[in-house]
Sequence to fold (370 residues):
Amino acid sequence: MRGRKFSDNPRFIIEALHQMRPDLDIVWFSDDRWPQDLPSWVRVVPYYGSRRMKRFYELASAKVWIYSHLFEHYLTKRDDQLFIQTFHASIPIKKVYLDMDHDNLEQYKLGRQYKQLINTSKISDVFLSNSSFYETVYRNGFAYKGPIIKTGFPRNDALINCKSDFRESVRKELNLEEKNIFLYVPTFRDEFERTHNIDYSVYDLDFKGIHDSLTNKYGGDWVILIKFHPVMQIYIKDYKPFNLPFVKDVTSYVNIQALLAASDFVLTDYSSTVCDALIAGIPGLTIALDYDLYKEERNFYFDLQELPFPFAKSNDELINNIENFNNDDYYANCEAFKKRIGLCETGHAAKDIAEKICEFLDTGKVDWNR
Fold:
């Protein structure tokens, strides 16, 4: 997230790497505008601001780069440096980069993002993948021609190995030990960042209706946690649903994997977070109040109605999907979807990549096919 949070695939790779080689000098680029709790063994360097030249020095002198987003178009690397691109979505639902339906592709190619995309694909030594589907996205959407290693994504290891531990620790941390958790994780709209004008209607859910339907169907005491995209954090102070007693804002909670593991249901619009829920074996739902507009502007890799996650275009449809949710059908559809995309989540991706980095540090080369 360009220094906004200590999370995602790079975090879990360097944690595994630190365990193997605690003597390594590990640098994390951080945006001072976003407070973060970083471990003592990480050396923090500003991403932006007057000290950003320090970041360029660290890039030039480092042996290994690990990125989860596009890289600057005006920077390159030496032949004796290793660049690992992890990206940041488990299974993308919305189309990315060259796969998007551009009104004017030639105009897009003149922009900064396209230049960043081409440079990232050109200088990356390997892309991480968790599925056959993702490999196709990399080849087409990223125009990437280099090695791809299908180990799964490091951030998902915890969803496979530590689900029960997270469930207990997160609930205790948030004082929700006796609650059932419904996690809402909506995605960001590109035009919000361009215009700084947030259209809250796309997030206008009937939270009372959701709460009542969950209580009626499953019983127990339910709380709805809302985690907006990190970029939204500066815009959501006046989001009215936070005034409801059963709704809690967890946007500032960094570890989304931990929140997922603690949840009983996950809801999103177009975020790949719902695919993380699939990997964790947690029921997932989708709702898209601006579906037609979003489809026209960006489009999707999948027909949302054909995904395993019951899909709604209105609050009434969402509540109906909750009331009629069938566990057996859901998990059967999940297994079929996993086979369709060739999903491969090993549960030890972070360890595998950390070992590859050690191999490179020791020998100056790495075999991505072994």
In short: The chain is about 40% helix and 15% strand.
